[in-house]
Amino acid sequence: MKTVSLNTEQAPPISVPLRFFAVAPLFLLLSGLVLLSGTDNPFSDPRTPALLAATHCITLGFMAIIMVGAMQQILPVVIGSPMPASGLTAWISFLSLISGALLLPAGFVLGQPSLLKLAWPLLLLAFLTFIGASLTSLLRAPARNPTRSALLLSILALAGAVVLGVLLARGYASGTALFDARKLATAHILLMLGGWVMLLIVGVSYQVVPMFQLTPDYPKWLTATLAPAIFGALLLNVLALFYQPESSWLSVVAADLFCVLAGSFAMTTLDLQSKRRRRVADATLGFFRLGMTALFSAALLAIAMPMLPAIEHYEMLVAVIFLLGFAMSVMHGMLYKIVPFLIWFHLFRGSVKTGVPNMKEIIPEPWMWRHLWLHRCTLLAALLAPWWGAAAWLVALGLLLQGVLLGYALLTAISVYRRTLVRLERNSNPDT
Amino acid sequence: MPHELDVRGLPPPEPFESIMRSLSSLPAATVLQVHIHREPFPLYEVLRDNGYAWQTTPLEDGSYSIRISLRT
Known about the structure:
The complex is a heterodimer of chains A (432) and B (72). By secondary structure, chain A is mainly alpha-helical. Chain A is built from 13 helices and no strands. Chain A has helices at residues 15-37, 49-79, 86-110, 113-139, 146-174, 181-213, 220-242, 248-274, 283-304, 314-348, 359-362, 365-384, 389-428. In chain B, 29% of the residues lie in helices and 32% in strands.
């Protein structure tokens, strides 16, 4: 596959994606604080309020905010089709997503249904605005490439996950027992993580990995088939979940199919990275490789699950590896690569100017390496936490520190941008 | 005789920076022949805005040769 044209003329102002990225670390910090608030080990049961709240701080507050912000940039630049009413769309989705992402975990951890009643309409507004704008942009896009297909399927999975999430949140808020609430929750997690998160990372990787990591392109047969196959496997998993009478063979086949596809993506990406042209150590590549190794491990463990004797907390382990090991690592890696590039590009604006900092000076590399090591330690603690309560404290501390470190790095980048912009403007208008 | 610049294997945005730096430092009549591993789409927009013409030739090894000169 050839990496498509980067249509920079249609890019939104840099303040749009940066606004989303700058608040995301706050939710990592909050997730750490929420975990510290739990009395028992929150990792011992996936339904503990502290774990439910911390998970939503990470998935809604950290990941969704980054992904929604990144899409405002990706759609016009990579697909060549800006979102309709892009300024208004960005503000509505930004404000309602942040408010909802604060209220929902607060409702869980404080046991306050009134907060959940406020949270779900805000989140519905955020996602309806975002899904409507993204679908319009994707359907009228001139580009017809595998990234567009993957993003389209990712948004469809998000739409399904949001419907289920709203049903669940309304159920919690009203205190009424939902029919098959456990299955609804499983389908919500499947579509959110396996669909929205996974397919978005797949689609963006087709562009970002060869371009920034100087690897060969992903094989054409893979980019043409992987995202539709993953989406099909997800639908099969959801079907198997609600199939009556319950059919174990269908569940096993559907789950294994998804895992094989996810594992193949991870292996292919690791293989491409091993063939990169420039073999220089790079923290962003480190995040990405950790993410892909974690995805492959999660897929392998999930496939092995039915063959092994029952092990307590096995599912929790797979979920932790997918969420913190895969999704969070890749997002850190992408942020540390894309934020300096965006800032550099907006400062450069197509002409040679003296005083535009080198991309490596925008976020100092040692900060990224420190964050990578901190993230590795947090992940290690999270792998032990289901069985060892003290490790849960280390996870909380790790997330808290990661929020501080990432927040500092991003604010440093924004301040470099502002300072340089003022200097460049002063140089171009010396009389003012 | 064109001035040759090989930016293969450099990560973004180094190829872009090197090409723009060369163009601004070379005498106006000089043709710049760039050898690059990927077709640099964002560069074309900038070249057009700065009054340059370019001709891109895909090479057999998957890289590209781009001949850049001032528009006459």
